[in-house]
Write a structure and sequence with these properties.
Layout (H helix, E strand, L loop, with lengths): L1 H26 L2 H26 L6 H23 L1
Helix pairs in contact: 1-2, 2-3
């Protein structure tokens, strides 16, 4: 069940990243770009979760998962602050 949930999380974040970046390339709304980049990095974090819990359970990817999530949130906050000016 955990594997299914991790794969669905990966697919959902990938779809969100795709839709946000596609909307950005159509409308050039900069907030869409920042959100799309955030979801690309969250997708990478989901890959680390799959690698950590499913593919390579003996290797600890917790630091990489946490760092990618923190980077994604930092980029989104930066984009929100930048676009509010």
């Amino acid at each position: 069940m955990t594997e299914t949930l991790n794969i669905l999380t990966f697919l959902t974040t990938l779809l969100c990243a795709f839709l946000l970046l596609r909307a950005y390339f159509r409308t050039r709304g900069r907030l869409l770009l920042w959100s799309g980049i955030c979801f690309v990095i969250l997708t990478i974090g989901s890959l680390f979760a799959i690698a950590d819990l499913v593919l390579f359970p003996s290797i600890d990817f917790f630091t990489y998962r946490t760092a990618s999530a923190a980077l994604a949130v930092a980029i989104l906050v930066y984009g929100l602050v930048w676009e509010s000016r």
